[in-house]
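#struct-pred

JT: dropping the chains for the assembly here, can someone run the whole complex?
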Amino acid sequence: MFDASANLKKRLKSERRFQIFCITAISFALIFVLILFLNIFSSGYSAFYKTTIAIDVDYSQVIEDTTQFAAMSDDEINKLDLFRFSKKSIYSLFPDIEDRKEKKLLIRIFSIEYEDEIKQFLIKNKENIKKIETVYLTASDDVDQVRKGNYPRDLPEERRRIKDIQLEYYDILENNGRVKYVFNIPFLTRGDSREPELAGVGGSIVGSFLTIITVLILSFPIGILAAVYLQEFAKSNRFTDFIEININNLAAVPSIVFGLLGLGIILNVFGLPRSTPLVGGIVLSLMTLPTIIIATRASLRAVPPSIREGALAVGATKMQAVMHHVVPLAMPGALTGTIIGLAQALGETAPLLLIGMVAFVVDVPSSPLDASASLPVQVYLWAESAERGYVEKTSATIMLLLGFLILLNLAAVLIRRKFETKW
Amino acid sequence: MNKIKISAKNIDVFYGDKQALFDVSMDMYEKEVTALIGPSGCGKSTFLRCINRMNDVIDICSVKGNVSIDGHDIYDKSIRVESLRESVGMVFQKPNPFPKSIYENIAYGPRIHGIANSKTDLDEIVETSLQKAALFDEVKDRLHQPGTGLSGGQQQRLCIARAISVNPEIILMDEPCSALDPIATAKIEDLMSELKKEFTIIIVTHSMQQAARVSKNTGFFHLGKLIEVDSTDTIFSNPGNQKTQDYITGRFG
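RK: done, full complex below.
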């Protein structure tokens, strides 16, 4: 009696087919995301480590009595000329080398800032410096890549940047236990550099942070006020319709156009300093505003009219009804919209290229008026560089960028969960 | 018969081009319950909302005619709609407590009008309002819990308490029991007979039995026109108009 008829069988079959299509679609999406993450992670994680090589530094050759270093200021130590001394310290690894060319090749195993690293060690430990100290110096990018296994040793010598003799030195040092693989803290704290092993994302993290803060300060209040006015107070007429259509259009404008606007108006007319997070923030605010306004209006619209009526009926003014009751209920939605807008701004590259945030900036910015890079622009810059060291740093920067984006989106979800009101 | 509290004369209401009320004139008396009945869409709620000018909220709505309370024209330019609503409270069809605590729901009105001078004053207003709404005993231990957590009937009495909190003279009720079960409805009706000693009550209702039970006068609306207004007894036993007769005997609506 309750047997499936031919028609029902057909319907059930089509339902199964539909589900299979859906699951396939989801699987594809997941696989792509997984491949993307694996690819970036596998090529990027090694950037968080660096190779260092220990040398013995005889500080007593600078000043006989090393206790005297304690009395010197950091500035005085920085002014010491330790260049020849540093070179000699490195040569002491292989005292047998006489040939000048070979000595030069030995020096090139290390990153060019070896003198500074030897000084910094001195400054950090000046209180109780021993006569002979073991100092770990950053290895050059080539050696670093050899250590990380990214450098095929079996290539013919003339096609390698690293020479056979340097490989020989490295292997001896490794066998003597002088090579140490450590967490690359400078990568997270320093600015960009022409030397891949010294380049860091610290400058662009701070730059991105300052930019996002500027965006937040500008676009959150303006966006919320605009949305509240348009949704709650403005009479609906041609003019407000016109504004509404244009806000929606603004959300669809290609971001590079905002960059042109920033270049043409903010830099050239108002003369604000180029390449700065302030200008970047202003330009990205223009992009973020429509997102915030649209999200806030949607959540204002979702507040039931009965709440407004309840407040008005006890004699609240319109502003009181809106500010005391409607806006607080719409806040979670508005905040979610804001965070999503900020996440968009964080990942935006094109407009920043036009306002000069693509400049090569070595210093970590300390205010929104300092020239600076930002994370996505740093990716763009490093992706163009040929050195193997930049390849892993590009991926590592993408990892950081994705990490920040995931954090922001997580915050949006948590805020929505926490403040979701039921009425 | 008590004195006239509210007097509406020649009220026309338009929603855009559509006319919703046609030349309605009606008097309502002090400290009595007046019921407005009629089929859906007949304009009785629209008329009710003219009395505290809640129609002002709707952009496309315009009101012509004259409504006076104690002889004062409430559509006069010198009248502030906020102070009008302080003396004309309203309770809606669906209970709409603010998503805040029970205490805050009632304290809100007195606070914005500056009625309470101190925390103790406010506490007292909250307590008496809840008592007048016959809700205090049920919620006195959980004043600081959300008002939205109460049952439907309790929420509606909370809304009545909220309306009372600012010392109105008139309370408008727009189908206050349509979302409630019979027991909660009975409680609200009992409450009304208590409240009418102190307030003038105008109630819009779908239920003719409710109108018969609670009101002294009844107005019957049909298609935007006030067909007949008379004492409730007369309307239900000996209506003067054929349409009223048809409606109360259930031939339409």
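JT: nice. DSSP finds 17 helices and three strands in chain A. The first helix of chain A runs from residue 6 to 44.
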